[in-house]
Structure formats: C-alpha cells, structure tokens
C-alpha cells in the first residue's frame, strides 16, 4: 500500500465582481478540474460580471448543517409522546451539544415518524467548518443522552438518511442544509449581445425550455440548471472541500427573465456545504487558495466560510451564464470545445 | 492568471477480490480524497471480499452514453409526424454519427414531446471513452442533419436536459446512461460477526430502515444507499474521470437480505460514467493508476472502460458494507473517525 | 347544459377495530368505487383487524392545511429582509387570519427565496374543514395585508405551487399538509397464515422488494405502498371529500417487519386531507355516512375531522394488507378478481 | 352490510371545440365533482376554445398499458442471462398474451435488474379498455409461462411497483403508461384580454413562476401544472373510469409562451388511463355520458377510448387556462369562488 498525490489541474479564473451581504469587490477564484474547457467558460462569465454595475449581487439566505438519527419504539403513539417530550427539553439538548464543541450549536429538530421508527433531524450551526464531523460527534452525544433519558428508545442508527448527506433528495432544499446562497444580476442587453453573441430573450427562452421544462421531463428533483455540478466540484477541490457534496449542491435553480429589455439572471443554490477549517484544509495549495480568496482573514466566526460559499455561488453564476449563452447558438459549444482543447484559448 | 496543481491525497486500498463478466481476481484500487477516513473504511470492506469464496461478483448490465437535443415545431402534431419519420430513418442517422468518430455508434433514440417542443435523446456506444465530448460532437452533427432534412424544425438547444448530465433525475436510471453495474456477494455470518462486529440481521434491518425507508422519507430519487458518492468521487479523481458525474452515480441502491443465515449484500449502480481515454487521462499519475488497475491492457474496444467501471462499483460495495456495519454499532462510527484522524490507523 | 347525478357504487365494509388517540372500537366504513373488487379485499383486512387484540392502533401525528403565495421583489436581498420582518410580525398576521374565519388559525410560515421571488407557505388550523377554501380566503387577506404593509412587494400569485395542492411533490410530507396518521398492528402469525394464506416473512419480504425497492426503481417520490390511492378515493367519495387530494394522499409508506415471529404492519399516511364540513357535505348520503361513522357527534372542534382521517387511514391499512397478502401467492390476485366479478363473492 | 349509491353531482360543461388526430368539432363534456366551482371555471375555458380558429388542437402521441412483475434469481449475472433470453423469445410471449384476450397485445418489455431481483415491465395494447385487469391477466399468464420455461426464476410478485399504478413515480412519463395526449392552442391576445381579463405576458410569466419554478421548489416529480387532478377526477367519475388513476394523470406539464403577441398554451398529459369498456361502464349514467361524448360509435378498436382521452385532455386545458387566468388577477379567485357558491353563477 502506497501513498501518493493525485493532481487535479487548477487555474484561477476571474476576476469576478461581487456585491452583497458577505462579499464586496473583485476576486479571482480557483477551479481545479480535469475538464479544462470549464476555465474559459467561467472566465467569460466572470468578465461579464465586471461589466455590470455592482457586479453579481449575492445573498446568503440561511445556513445550517444537519444529521438525522433514528430510533425504534414500541409503536407510533409512543414515538409521538417521546418526540413531544424531547422537543420540550431542547435547552437540555443544546447543553449536551455545547459540550461536544466550542462551535456546534443546536438550532432545532425536525422529525418524521414512520410506523414505529422515530427519525430526528438535528440542525446545527458549525462555525467555519462544513461540519460533517462536528454534527456526527454532536449527534452521537445527543443519541447517548436521549437513550439514557428515554429508555423506551431503542438505538437505530447514527445516520438515518433523513439528513441527507450526498444523496439526491428533497429534504435539504426544503428544510435547509449547508449555506443557501443566491447570486443574481441584471445584465445590460448590450453586454449580452456583445459578449455572449445572443439576446436576453434567447437566454430566457432557453432557460425555461431546457432548465425548467427539460429538467421536469427528465424527472428531476429540485434541479433546474445546466451544469452547477461542474463549477462546484472544481471550486470544492481547489479549496479543500468534500467534493462529494456536489450531489446536493447540484440541486439548484437558474432563473432568467427580461427586465426592461435587459437580462435578469440568477442562480439559487440552497445546499452549499463548505468550510474553511476541517479535513483537506491543511494542504499547502488549499491554504494558499483560501488566503488568496480572503478566507483566512480575521473575521467573526463563520464569516470566512460564508465568504467562501458566496464565491462558490458566484463561480456557478459565471459558468451557468456562459454555457446558456453558448447553447443558444448552434455550433458554438462544439467549436469552443475543440478550439480550446487544440489551442488552449477560448473564442 | 496562473496555473498550478491542486493535489488530492491518494491511497491505494485493497486488495479486493472480484469475479464476474469483466474482472476476475485481486486488485487494489486507488482512492483520492481529502476525507481520509474513507481509506480504512473501504479497506475493511476489501478485506472482507477476500474472505468470500469468489469474492465480489460483478455484472455489467448495460452501457450507453446520451445527449438530448430539442427542437421547436409549429405544434405537437407536427412533432409527432417528424418524430416518426426520424425514427424510420435511423440508419441514415447512424451513418451521420459514424462520420464523427471511429468509436461513436448510435444505439437508439428516446423522445419526449412537450407542447410544441420535441426532445430527442440520442444513445451512443462510445468505446473506451466516457463520451461526453464524443456524444456532443455526434449530436451536433445529428442536429445539423435533422435541421437540413426537416426544415420545419427550429433549433432549440444542443442540450435539453433530458440527457441528463450531472443532475439528479430519474431518466438516467430508467433509460440508461453510463455503465450499469451490480456488485454483490453472500458474506458468511461468521465473517460478518468477526470482521464487522455485527450480524447479518442487523445489517439487513439497518439497510431497510435507513437506506430504503429513511431515503424515501427524505424525498430521495432513485437513491437508496448510505454514501456511494464518497467512494465514487475518490475513485474518479484517482483515475482521471469527470468527478461531477458522481451526481448521477450516487443514485444507486443497496440491498441486504438474509440467505440461509448469511448476508446477501449488493450495490446496484446504474449510472457509472467512466472511461480510460479522454480528458484527464494524460496526467502522469492517472496513467500510472490506470496501468496498475489493468486498464491499459490490449483488449477489445470498450473492455478497459468496462473493467474500470466494475472496479469502481466494487470499491463502492466495500465502502458501503463497511459503513453500514459501523452504523449498526452505537458509537463505532465516531470512535473510528477520531481514532483514524489522530493515529492514522483504523480500528 | 343539464344537471344530473353521477352515481358511484358504494358498499360498507367492516367492521374494523381501532384503538388510539382519536378512535376506539368497531366501525364499519363506506367505500364508493367502480372497482368493486376493492370491497372484499378491504373487508378481508377489516376482519383481520377484529382478530387482533386492540385492533389497529392509530396515531394522529400532526394536522395543518397550507397555501403558498409568492411575490416579486427587486432582488433576493430585499426578499430576505422582508421575510425576516414578516416573520417578526407573525402576531399581526394571526390577527388578520382571525378576521377571515372563526376556525382559521395561522400556525406558521415556511418560505423559499428563488432569485427575486419570495414564496410564503402559510400553515393553518382549519377546524373540522379540509380547509381548501378557508386557507385561500385567509391567504387572500394575508396577501392584501402584506402588499399594503410592504409596498416593495409585487403581487405574484395567490397560489405558487409550493402549497402543494394535488400534485406529486415532496414538500407536503416534509413540512406537513393535511392530517398525518399512522395505523399499525402486530398480527399474530396464526392469523396471517389462516386468513391470508401466507406468512409474516413473505409479506415482509414482498413489502421490501415491491413497495420499497420497486418503488425506488420506478423513480417514486415519498411513495412506498401498493395501492393507497384505491382505498382513499373510495373513502373520500363516500364521505363527501375532494377526491383529487388522493394525489398527495397516495404518497405514503408501508412497513412490514417480523416481531417475535408475528407480523408488524403499518401504514404511514402523512397527507390525509379530509373534513366533516364544507363542499360535498350537504348531500344526503354523505350526511348519512358521516353520521354512521360517528363524525357528526358533538365533539371539540376538529375532533370529528380527526376521527374521519383515522377511519380513512384504517381503511387503507386493511386494503393494503389484503393486497400484499394476495400478491405473495401466485395466481391468487387474478383468481380473486375473476371470482368476485363473476359471483360477487370473495374467496 | 348494505349496498347503496353515492352520488357525485355532475354537470355538462362546454361546448369545447377540438381539432386533431382523433376528435374534430364541438363537444360538451360532463364533470362529476363535489367541488362545483370547477364547472364555471372549465366552462370559461371551453368558451374560449370556441373563439379560437380550429379550437384546441389535440395530439395523441402514444398509448400503452403496463404491468411489472419481478422474480428472484441466484445473482444478477443470472438475471441478465435470463433477461436476454426472454427478450429474444418475445414472439413466444406475444402468443401467450394473445391467448388471454382478443384485445391484449404485447408491445414490448422494459426491465430493471436490482441485485438478484429481475423486474420485467410488460407493455400492452388493450383495445378500448383502460386495461388494468387485462394486463394483470396477461401478466399472470406470462409469469406462469416464464416460471415453467426458466426454472431458475423464483416467483416474486405479480406486481413489483415498476408498473407503476396510482403512485407518484417517474417511470410512467418516461416509458409511457396510458394515453399520452397534448392539447394546445394559440389564443388571440384580444380573447385573453376580454375573456380572462389578463394578458398573454401575465399568463406566461405566472406559468413559469408557479407551475415550473414553484413546482420545482416543492420537490415535484414530472409535475408542472396548477390543477390537472381536479378536471381529471371529475371527468373520470362522469365516464366510469377508475378515478384513482388521477395520481399519475396529474403528473403533466403546462406551457405558456408568447407567439407574435398571442398566447400559446398547451397541456401535456402523458398518463391518461381511460377506457370505454370495463368496470364502471355498465352504469346507466355512464353509458349515457359515453354516448353523448360520441364514444359509443362504431369505430375501429381503440378509437373510442382515444376519443375519450382527448376529451379528458381538452377539459384539462380549459380548466387550467381558466385558473391561471384567474390567478394573475389579485382577488379574482376568491371572488369567483364566493360568488359561485352563493349564487350558482360564475363571474
């Protein structure tokens, strides 16, 4: 058994321009990917962002990390009774969580009763960490506490898949998991025409027919976008994130509308699971990237991770806009691919 | 703008033992991940596979790569008429595809008519390539041909999201996209007890309650597993794959049943999108890994990619079994995590 | 244009035996359906319930009725600001709701921000009514109030499909809509063998493979059952309900497990939308049926509707058990159908 | 135990005007419902259809009825082998089906292999019947034949939920189940303004934001409409259909676009399960309704059922258009409800 290093080619694209509740100003972002045509594509979107007054506006709507456990009880009536009692003693549970970490904070409990199984979905704040381990540790302590306090509970599992980690589910978008970020801008018609060689109307129509109608036909689940997964994975790998969280991260929604002749374009990304501390963060290039992204600054707890989430979302915005622009033009997509792969330059 | 390399830590785990229609014998597999506790977990499953007569049995059920395009027509009646005509001339389309690549072969066409939009989903064989670019190039040629032959078609998009690439949808599992691989084995009770410190009954119960019931409660889509995404991403990164395809790859199903007192355990992975040629394959460590995996041997076209898919699926089997085993034991998961992260060894 | 009456054949099946937090004792239930083989099937399950000590145990976990509206705002940041302000003034909204009906009570607000759209999902208590009209009236008043109080809101729609009414969605099961009822029992092995001509093991295996695995393969959404829709529609029609609510009603989960050699069997029905007042209730036969069901008694507000929900859920339990029993036996299903249709008697 | 009749109030609405591949001309349709505000709503849409040149254009894209069975095998490799053999002998299976009914015809077989389970989904033509019983009978014969021919198969179930009957799944829309009908028209702007008191732009915007975006947020599955279930249930009850099939029937898609200043409006309904023979058809009022709908005429086998499906789809179009029109106007929905319920007239 040997150790070695797998290298994923990385390039900084940008600068992209941002305004909003966490990030302001210009910022280059790093993308690590084997699919190197992603770089010119995102870069094109980034350039457009610098031509918009105020750039890409970002809004961080929510943040929480979750873990669901489950127990067996004699019957559903017992589950309901215990559930109500547990909910009434949430302060006690908060104290249990507080002993597991300085940063973990119990925000609330969601539940499902299915037959004689009781699923509890704990929601936490996790500081600057994505929080996978922190919430597992906290949930482990909570389970122990619950099993002692309510002996009628029988251990089921520390993870009951109602969390839901790295699976295509609806629960995360509805109840929240990770950082919920929206990036949006109104792009002047002239910029759309000159930089994307298309029109606001064509992009809006494509978005409705492909990202909404086409996705619905495909039997999609809370997914209405072209390729969020591509930008997210590249950004996650470059910044030391657990890339497998693109599974839920990819479940987001692109909207494109005409506003006074210009193009309103937004990406709603409810499930960005990122952190600036934790696994993967000790690697040299990751540290360097986080510093260049301004995510190693001295800020209130959680703000560096929030900044990182917004930058991820902005990268998604750039790549999504660029691809939709290309797909409104017959042949452009293929030409761009071939050209870049042969010459290393984008159209 | 600078270039550099992002390094993802890699370790070979194994050996795992396989029998089936593409791979036989022992094989170590490489996993590149920041989540390094994945290594001992998969390795535990790999060890178990070597204790089973015949090891993990693999079956490659199907393979195809897809791209959907869409057109606008005056109304649905026209769409239906053109669709029937296109289907009747599939040989002509096959010839068009044949001119775009030595390896691309048109297998069939699926369709959806939605209002006045006609979605065509082309299915291809793509040799040893995952095939993203090959099918885009082929679809581009097909669209051009169709637009010339049926002037009533109006260009919609080269990708209509009915493909469906890197999004959580149902279409890929139902119509097929990528390689459909099943890995399965009957694990003697004694091995379950000694190596996983649990029982076949506990694992079967956990699988039903967590992977099936819990996933259904979470509003999952064709997903009934604990953490396929983790093993897939690590395997994909180590072998130069487009890791964003874990989105559809994660949509698979674990089954666990009792057979004569032993544990039947299977992973059904309908959407493994892997190749041994294409983007990412030129990197030195990727080349080395593919060679060590026996995927650079002189075999009939497609067999190296099939071998790779089976090895990916077997890695999933190992990691899935190991985690389910751990989750039947209160506290084991957390203890294993902490122990490994502190000491670099697994329990 | 003429008026007339469409007659749906009705039969009372039962008696079924219930214990739990709303209903106790024996009760016949009426089923109106054109699919008359449903009657002997449900009746078989009802007979079994009377052979179980305590009968079918019912638990009403939750109840609420919902309506979602949406607004347009300049951008997501504004949506978030307004949302936080609205949430802080919920008491004011409660007062607005209180003026629209004696029975409507605002329980809470769920939300989604998608780009510059703000979706608010109002949750209400609605007394003994299913509540469609009551919540629309209340939401209309709430919208008017919100539009006046926050002039930056632009009217979107009184219904934004995040409610979600009569559509296959995940939101209802996760956030709650209608009455969430679980019916369950442990059926002695001897009863399973004598009355269903099968074994607990066969039913548990069938349930896992068909209702869980098969449904997942089909790309189901929060649905793991054999035929809830059949019993629900028949019960709804017989009691004057809006039968179209079987769409969400059908999204429920059957569980079957072995407990000490006997069969644990439960139906989890999170979205039963029923009432004892409102549209359809003025018809003579409906009135009569509600009386016979004990749902016209003088009880605290809401208790008659709760009783109705539990009786619906118990009917589902009976029909579901009976069909699963039949499907474990090759040929029984078809024989039963043919026999009943020819002779009007069940096997 | 008593028999009686449950009466669902029925009214004929219309006339609606249709052109297309199965129905031409004017036709009133009957709707049986307790929700009587549905009548004026659908009638408004019907009136609009008569103001459009050519009326509502209908296209019947496909028809088939399905039943899935499943078997257990020693392992997936065996499943694959048997599957390939079964597919190669489909003519033999066609003959088996032909012996069960004059009208049943086997069109094809879809399959899924999950671990050691083999799911076969048989597709049939069923003449003028919806076909539930016909395909169960045929599948029963097929299973018997398969079990005799391949003794390695072990009986699983006559229904494996991959059919999928009356459950919210993706498989039916993707592979087909029931009649796939599209109804569409271009409504002159002037008609939209005068009859719906709104504009094409408002309806198109509402459709995108509510039916597409709102549904996606709700975690919907192949559902992008406002209330298909309402019209379908009323039409089904009035014509003797199995109303529980609105579960899959409700999974359809509304599209609204601007075409040269007018409104393109379509309803895509892939899963209409209707017949003119079978259960429920013997009732007097059903017979009368089918006659008035022109579905008792002497036509080639299947054409009466196709006509019925198109009329159902056209009713959906009328009700959907009318509600969307109402929801673009603040307050209209509630006013219309109250007015109708008090006075029995629509606005």
Automatic annotation (TrEMBL), chains A, B, C, D:
Single Gene Ontology MF annotation: hydroxymethylglutaryl-CoA reductase (NADPH) activity
Pfam families: HMG-CoA_red (PF00368)
Signal peptide residues on this chain, from the entry's feature table: none
Biological processes per GO annotation: coenzyme A metabolic process
Keyword Transcription regulation in annotation: no
EC id: 1.1.1.34
InterPro entries, A to Z: HMG_CoA_Rdtase, HMG_CoA_Rdtase_cat_sf, HMG_CoA_Rdtase_NAD(P)-bd_sf, HMG_CoA_Rdtase_sub-bd_dom_sf
First-level EC class: oxidoreductase
Keywords assigned by UniProt, alphabetized: Oxidoreductase
Family: Belongs to the HMG-CoA reductase family.
Protein name: Hydroxymethylglutaryl-CoA reductase (NADPH)
Organism phylogeny: Bacteria, Bacillati, Actinomycetota, Actinomycetes, Micrococcales
